[in-house]
Each structure stands twice: as C-alpha cells, then as structure tokens.
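cron nightly-structures :: item 1 of 1
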Amino acid sequence: MSDYEVFIGICERINCPRSYVNLVLSELSNLGVAEVLNDGDTEFMGFRLLGKGQNSLVFKCRVDNGYYACKIRRFDSSRPDLVGEGNYLRLANSVGVGPRLISYTSDVLIMELVSGIPIQRYVVTANPTELRVVLRDLLWQCRKLDSIGLAHNELSRPQDHVIISGGRAFIIDFESASLNSRVSNVAQILNALVMGRGSIQDRVRAALGVSIDFYGLRNVIRRYKVTRSDDDFMQILRLLRLE
C-alpha cells in the first residue's frame, strides 16, 4: 500500500484530475512527507481526516519521526494556491501566534499538529479560572495580530478557528487572512465570545465574574478599532478584569 494511499483513495472517490494527483504527490515527496495517515475526528469518503473545507483537506502526516498537520489544497478550490496562507501563518508565528509552520509549497502546507478541542466545547467544560486564563491568552494573541496589521478575518466564528490545547488557545486556519485590514481581531473575538447573546456568551460572562459595563466596553472596543493602542487594549482588559 502506498504511504499516500489515504489521499489517493479520497481523490479516486471525488474524481480528482490525474495531473492534480501527480502534482500533489510530488509536492508531498519534496516536502519530506513519509506518510499520510488515516486518522482524525472528521470522516470523509470512508477515511479519517483532521478537517475538511471547501478549499482544502487536512490530514495527519508523518515527516521523519514526527507527526504534523498536512493541509492539501483541493483541486476544485477557488483559491489558486496555499502560498498566501503559508506567508500569513509565518507572519503570525513571528509574534508567537498560530500552529508552528514547518514548510509549504503551492498545494501542500505542513504545520504543527495541535490536538485539542474547539473553544465552544471548551467553554462548556472548563472551570471559571481555566476559562479566564484562556480568554486572556486569546485576547493577547489577537492583540499581537492587530499590532502587526494581520487580520485573521474569521474570528467572528471562533468555533471553527480557535482550538484549546494544554490550557492555551491556538488560532488556526489563516486561509482568509489579510494585511492592513480594518478588521480587528480583538474586536471580533470579543463580539463573538462576550458581547453577543447565547449560552456560550452567558457562560463566558459568568466566568469573568463581573457585571460588565456593556456601554463602556462597547465604546472602548470602538475606540480601539481605530487607535489599536496599548492603552485602549489594556482598558478592555481592565473592564473585563483580565489585566
């Protein structure tokens, strides 16, 4: 059996062009991927994956004696390549955010394998102290991204883009990221986890253990989106008692 049999098997089921299959196999080999494993929480076409989306499939892979996440661009993706995502992940890594980038080509991106649970599930199971630590960590990571002008652009849906592992938040999937955007990562995550309505937001607010001044917090968030200043960010943390 080929070490890439999982990828090849999926391609046979979804009728990938042979030229695309050969290209990806060549890139996997050039990147030193020794094996693509049938392992993960996502089932697709009779195989197990780490994840799947409209533009890519994510597999557990082996490089030398280590295991990593291997993202492969789908042949029917609307995106021409993974180069932009690789560049943005490298930039995020430069400020200590995101899974560690290993290497990438046009159609394959290899990064640190983060084993954890989505933040929406974590919120339900974590105790208030743990949740406060993770929320503070996540806000600081968002702040770091804002400080270099890198917008993730998908943190309004943190359930798909934030994983909790070992008591730390990992922002993943920089596929839609952009530079010099007016989008604030801090504002997006606050709107999704604190300011909105729902059971998840109620639990986060309860864990914060404060009576939130929503009017004041909303004004500071608006100001921060314009200034991106340390003072306004620290004021947000103070209002949430996370400083």
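cron nightly-structures :: done
The mean pLDDT is 95.
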